[in-house]
């Protein structure tokens, strides 16, 4: 391969820029040209494609978001849309594509590979919900953003002796809530993968209150339900002064942590290696600190699971 493309797609995550930089520099290091595709699959179809040089990815390693922008593109779900995309790539002589994004983006990459265009997926999402990798790019940064918020809320929760419900992102995956709850010392963590009993949540709050606890923190993944509704129920059943904080999109932004930058650099470079070895239809990841790659189809067929032992530990430490 002498010419490859790179795009970011779906929800953005901090560290995507570091991954783009790694793809560009690794390719150029191997005398391969790199083209940046802007606005994800939408830009692929409409041909928003530009050659990237070493300097184009300078000064971005520490920036959140994605310099290539990202988009959601319904047209790409049709074969016609994907064929248009391939035409654009063929016109420029691009022979392989690195797709940085979540599972939706992986589906697009898989479908392109099925049409004979080799793609490699790089896991970029704050949700940490891609099978075949222990961590996704952006998770560590989002986790630290949430922890920063929990620590601050804890101060005011203590001063006012309040119960706080903190809603974090994660429609289908509870990793962010679980890790943040564990690291933030939350009393209760509610995640979509584990059913909860509101009576038990309330009983735990009461036990804490009887023990003289000044405040309580409950971390809820958005997939469980509205934090506001959960807060209301708690206020009604316990009579403890309860406040709700929905952290929202601040979790997606910010300068990536060193861990995310290193992860993004390693994964981005590995994706280029695979393409140069002629391997399409793969998804890169990190497992037990080793770089790995799997068949994208196999990753898409697998269901994300939350670390059960870690969930149990969070229960044991928040008695
Ligand atoms: P994420 O990659 O963060 O999971 P989405 O699920 O929104 O985000 O997917 C991003 C984009 O990937 C979609 O807007 C669409 O263009 C493409 N995509 C998603 N699912 C498919 C599919 N089944 N076939 C082709 N393209 C898809």
Automatic annotation (TrEMBL):
ATP binds at residues 11, 72-73, 102-105. Pathway: Carbohydrate degradation; glycolysis; D-glyceraldehyde 3-phosphate and glycerone phosphate from D-glucose: step 3/4. One of its GO terms (molecular function) is 6-phosphofructokinase activity. The keyword Repeat does not apply. One of its GO terms (cellular component) is 6-phosphofructokinase complex. ADP binds at residues 21-25, 154, 185-187, 211, 213-215. Homotetramer. This is ATP-dependent 6-phosphofructokinase. It comes from Bacillus timonensis. The gene is pfkA.
